[in-house]
Amino acid sequence: MTGAYGPVIAGVDEAGRGPLAGPVVAAAVILPDSVDLIGLADSKALTQRRREAIEPKIRELSWDWSIGASSPGEIDRLNIHQATLLAMRRAILGLKRVPDYVLVDGCFYPRVPYPGEAIVRGDQSQPAISAASILAKVFRDRYMRGLDARITGYGFSRHKGYPTKAHLEALQVLGPCREHRQSFKPVLAVS
Question: Which domain holds residue 90?
């Protein structure tokens, strides 16, 4: 299946490889060739406010989008690399529209039944990957803010699970919770 202007290209990126807690999240996005989203860039280059402003526009203007995630338990069982590829696979397979080609940010391509390639720094050169980067980051940040309301004391809404000084101090005092990645060294050190 091709779009009005050519092949249907899905862009894929992830958020949350480095944190000590929470899922790793991936997004897959199919943008129309004609879409012009002002301010579209790698999520790390945008402020939280800018990401949250553009995220609903990406969802609205995309031909299709999907989110996939791997839980902390899956990260511990598989390792972060394999769990990231699993989250990407879930995002791609969650698309309702079948892509002709898939562009993935990074060095590794997940096991999916579609042709494609991994592009180092693809989030800086491919609009669909940039859009996926934003969706994944906004989704994960919202998840961590919700987690902070359910599991208090760790400050998840502030640091999103990354190993900040405040998070490491909370881990020392409280020990790990069910959302911590038990296989990560700073969590193992207090278990």
Answer: 2-143
